Amino acid sequence: MAKTIAEINDKIKKGQAVVVTAEEIIEIAGKKGVSQAAKEVDVVTTGTFGPMCSSGAYFNVGHTKPRIKLGGGKVYLNDVPTYTGLAAVDIFLGATALPDDDPKNRIYPGEFRYGGGHVIEEIVAGKDIRLVATAYGTDCYPRRKLETMINIKDMNEAVLFNIRNAYQNYNVAVNQSDKTIYTYMGVLKPELGNANYSTAGQLSPLFNDPYYKTIGIGTKIFLGGGVGYVAWQGTQHNPNVLRGDNGVPKRGAGTLAVIGDLKQMKPAWLVGTSFLGYGCTLTVGIGVPIPVLSEEILRYTMVTDGEIYAPVVDYSEAYPQRKPDVLGEVSYKELKSGKITTKGKDIPTASLSSYPGAVEIAGILKDWIKKGKFLLTEPVALLPGVESGIVFKPLEERPIL
Amino acid sequence: MAAVSKRIVLHFPKRLTNESIVYKLVKDYDLAFNILKASVTPGEEGILVMELTGEQRNYDKGVKYLTETGVKIQSLSQDVVWNESRCTHCGACITLCPTGAFSIDTKTRKVIFDNGKCVVCELCVKACPPHAMELYF
């Protein structure tokens, strides 16, 4: 019964494609059986909406008269520094960038109220942004200072380019020490006072395609409220981790690098975010359609929260010291119940990734496909799988000679 | 006479921070108080968040006394505001709130904020990743 992406696209164009979310497929396939569901369902949509730090955007702001070479100079957008090591008027803004005068953690825990992620959100919202730049001046680019308001509609290009998003599984963070700690996994109360997790579980893209059999380079996706593409595997993409019998990784594993035109995205799905005592980031909405090409693919999309496990990691000692210790494994079903039991203690849980957001994204993507507004793409190349032999390397320091 | 219990925010001007105003509320107006939060430094404007309990008549008189003395009074419920349009419904607030003012709707998994349980400790204001909890004084 194998289908092809071209066949599915024909059905989408005719408005005949059967599209369901990764939540809905669980019940549908449970009732109809795998074989029947694989025949009937064409696409399963997934979603995730959580803080993703390796996000950013590049811009071409246009040439001033007289010209200025921002490349190699300093450029600030709303006081947040950008990366300028590019051509004359190309700049890159990272989600975690902070204003030079932010007190950071000098006043502990720092609040990090405004950073790169917030600037990206405001740019997408169509707000005017303050650009302040200094340059060294050349014969062909004589100007040395620039202070102006800019707006996304006037830029030549504004492109979201996130080098690591949509982590396939993630740690559950706890704190075994006797004092509160402030981490990228949120505020963690002492003596295992709370446990924070951060994936959408059964709706999360890579949990529904655990071996990357459909998601690859060139896969068209929902990104930040608009359309984007998988550009590459994300940084730290590591297929070779402990997996369950269902193939689902029990540790952080695959990741996606994604790209898309910022001009058609929406601020509701690119939200500037702060972590007390840690820093700024961007909460990104991503939805990936999974073409049901075979019964095998369908079976992967049926994964439920009860079948996905995450490691519980102590962020007061094991994580910062890069120790491999894991306090236990818990399922997303347990995590979503509001309580897990680790080391004999009941620990209340909270999520950093928005499940309602993931549900909404999977729903929007389903709607786009059903209405024929979004066709699927054939990946140009698949992401490295377990056969790639990728090893996730730490940095082993060496003395500088 | 009906008893009332209200949670209010008192703003003291500089000149009043050395006076024993709360003592008077107890002694002259027979009101019970429970201080939820205080920031009172001599010579600076002070803020006192408290629950005031007593008979309606006494409560009204007490509030009148406070107002006449120069204390500005606000109802507490206006102070920590959930800006739902900024809330991403992640749920990071759930386990942080000491009074359990946040919960998750088990069906939609959306965040629910029960203002009545809020004691304005402000933990959520700083810890909410998208800054959806706002403080209004």
Describe this structure in words.
The complex is a heterodimer of chains A (401) and B (137). Chain A is α+β, with helices and mostly antiparallel strands and 401 residues long. Chain A folds into two domains: 5-52 and 165-383, no CATH class; 58-160, no CATH class. Chain A is built from seven helices and 26 strands. In chain A, the strands form seven sheets. In chain A, strands 3, 4, 7, 10, 16, 17, 18, 19 and 20 form a nine-stranded antiparallel beta sheet that branches. A four-stranded antiparallel beta sheet of chain A has the order 6-5-8-9. In chain A, strands 1-2-21 form a three-stranded mixed beta sheet, sandwiched between helices. In chain A, α2 crosses α3. The longest helix of chain A has 16 residues, at 355-370. Chain B is of the alpha+beta class. Chain B has two domains: 3-78, 2-Layer Sandwich (Alpha-Beta Plaits), CATH 3.30.70; 80-135, Alpha-Beta Plaits (2-Layer Sandwich). Chain B is 20% helix and 32% strand. Chain B is built from three helices and eight strands. In chain B, strands 2-3-1-4 form a four-stranded antiparallel beta sheet. Chain B has a two-stranded antiparallel ribbon with strand order 5-8. In chain B, strands 6-7 form a two-stranded antiparallel ribbon. In chain B, a hairpin with a 6-residue loop joins β2 and β3 (46-55). In chain B, α1 (21-29) runs antiparallel to α2. The two termini of chain B are 32 Å apart. The model of chain B has no long low-confidence stretch (mean pLDDT 86). The A-B interface holds A 49-51, 109, 111, 113, 186-187, 189, 193-196, 271-276, 283, 336, 338, 348-357, 359 and B 86, 88-96, 104, 108-110, 123, 126-127, 129-131.
Keyword list:
heterodimer; A: 401 residues; alpha+beta; 9-stranded antiparallel β-sheet; 7 helices; 26 strands; 15% helix; 30% strand; globular; B: alpha+beta; 4-stranded antiparallel β-sheet
